[in-house]
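Example A, followed by Example B.
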Amino acid sequence: MSRTVEINENLWTRLVKFAELKGHASPQQFIEETLERELAQPDGAVSDQEITHKMEQLGYLDFGRDI
């Protein structure tokens, strides 16, 4: 199934140049690969370890350290 998306001329020109520079066969290939990569990641996805580390840095967690 094919869908159509309108892209303004300035953005399309930049997209074509960028896709070629990055070695993509076509702007469509670049767009599809970029969307697949972005959609594979949940919004703002971070690991539990990253969240824990950030909370420790902010002082919200203290694992056995005397204050």
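Example B, a separate protein, is given below in the same form.
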Amino acid sequence: MPASPLWVNRDYQLLWWSQTLSWTGSSAVFVALPLLVLHATGSPADAAVGMFAASTARSAGQVPAGLIADLCPRRTSMVLCEVVSVLACCGLLLLARGHGSLLAVALCVAAVGLAESVFAASAAVVLRVLVPVEQLPTAFGMRQVCSQISELVGYPLGGLAFALSPALPFAVDGVSYLVCLLAVSAIRVPLGGGRRRHAADRDTGPRGGLNSVRAGARGLTSGVEFLWRQRFLRWTSLASMAVNLVFSALLLIVITLVSHSGGSTQGGTGAGTILGCSAAAGVLASLLAPRLTRRMPPRTAVIATVWVIALATAGMALLPSPLGLGAMLSLCYLAGPIATICVAAVSLAATPEHLVGRVVTARALLAMAAEPLGAPLASVLLDRIGATGTLLVLAAGLAILGCLMSLLMPSLSLREAEASASLSS
């Protein structure tokens, strides 16, 4: 009997549409947070502190997130994560009204970042509970599109809401987390976790002693070790780290340039519009990516993406107007999803079944590992060599990586990845 379509799967719809709303609120805050700090202090370095705290917390949260998703009751952990996020947004709401300090802002966004990491890992595992195996590719495709749409709506919403009231984006984000909390609580299907353990994890309980410590460390690192042993996946992980670092730097550069050119209120609207147009390009790329990836070898897709982003970054240095910045940033967002979908498919096909959850979090950890450095690096370079020099330095770094990948990166097709996973199992 064929499975019911996803659009009539009540529990799936509850999870993913509520997450889409939550992603929209987070996208609004992503724009509003640096604008809030810039409005209060006028310093890009201070704005970078908040972005650094959020990125670092999300990256650090990936380390235990896979184990938490495997060993803890998932519904409970997901609800607790949303409670933490709601409370942190309440704190940011007070800070936006002038009560608090930069340190308090950093602590609140770090709490949200940690909670988001754990929630995302559990949600990725829960998807396999809610959706039949044959429908997983469609579900992941819908997830990618919803993520891009949330950015398309959230970025301009953040700029517009900030122009109306600096506290409004944080109130919207808090409501979105509350809706997600209620939706997870309303899912009828048992979400699992916290009962049965894989044989490799049986010593991680409270009675394991030294074996518990060793097994826990092995569980935390097994996903990273697997990725690093695969040469193709190793290079794609390095590429993801570099691209995320550059994206983090570019977003601060764009927001700073537009904010300084139009003032805090007009700058907020302009930055939100630019990022919203870029997110629209990401949605288009997500819709086209499945067709393109069937015709393009994964190695070609990854290397081409690195070169396109390098050239677009250099283009921003040549076209520093809001229109030029928006066009080049949109080109970056247009290239990114193609490589992302290729790498995700090959990585999933190459991973033995018992490691899938931890490899998912390991890929996210490695992809985000360098992201927290992007905003501080951009801040330092902006002070030393200006926006044009900063953009050219970032473009040159990606160009060097593109050359190395062209020379050293091996190829790996989807069928070869499946064969490799069978041998590993």
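On Example B: Residues 41 and 79 are 35 Å apart (CA to CA).
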